[in-house]
Design a protein that fits this description.
The protein is mainly alpha-helical. The chain folds into 2 domains: 80 residues, RNA polymerase sigma factor, region 2, helix turn helix motif (Rna Polymerase Sigma Factor, Chain: A); 71 residues, Arc Repressor Mutant, subunit A (Orthogonal Bundle). Helix content is 74%, strand content 0%. It contains 7 helices and no strands.
Length: 175
């Protein structure tokens, strides 16, 4: 019974997929964020298939889910960027001109990761580093003159390879 409902939901989702993708692009303004929003929406629709009431407008239900996810993500982003100053005055904010950092352990891990990144083939390392530096997928694809899908897969496989290399290095340290 549950599988039948999920199959019906999946079929209906497939039927309105292009409309949802267009709506997500309209909300986000860029294709990478739009794809993420679409994926989040599709996952939420499938996992909450039991909450859909048969006979109601499926597309309206799906669009409402997408809009709510977008609004919640936007609010999280705004909250994350907001700094609340609860000090009685601004003296504490500007009191220290010199910042003393002790990132020794983090620097060692970073240096170790960068050595691992440098062992990746150039076709994987370059897009990965550009993504790390903050370039969007479409910007990387344009600059490297490669298809967007190729760039995405290379970055994905570079991450997977680095995760494996890092786990292997952790195991060697423990041994």
């Amino acid at each position: 019974m549950i599988y039948a409902i999920q199959n019906q939901i999946q079929e209906q989702l497939d039927n309105i997929s292009s409309s949802l993708r267009a709506f997500s692009l309209k909300l986000t303004g860029n294709s990478v964020d739009a794809e993420d929003l679409y994926q989040d929406t599709a996952l939420r629709i499938i996992t909450n298939a039991d909450k859909y009431r048969q006979g109601t407008n499926f597309k309206a239900w799906a669009v409402t889910i997408m809009r709510n996810i977008f609004i919640n993500n936007y609010r999280k982003k705004v909250r994350r960027n907001m700094i609340i100053d609860q000090t009685p005055n601004n003296y504490y904010i500007n009191s220290g001109d010199k910042l003393v950092e002790n990132d020794g352990e983090m620097n060692v891990a970073y240096n170790e990761l960068m050595k691992m990144v440098n062992t990746l083939p150039e076709d994987f390392r370059r897009p990965f580093m550009m993504a790390y530096q903050g370039f969007k997928y479409d910007e990387i694809a344009e600059q490297l003159e490669s298809p967007l899908g190729t760039i995405k897969s290379r970055i994905f496989f570079a991450r997977k390879k680095l995760q494996k290399m890092y786990k292997d290095a952790q195991k060697e340290r423990r041994a």
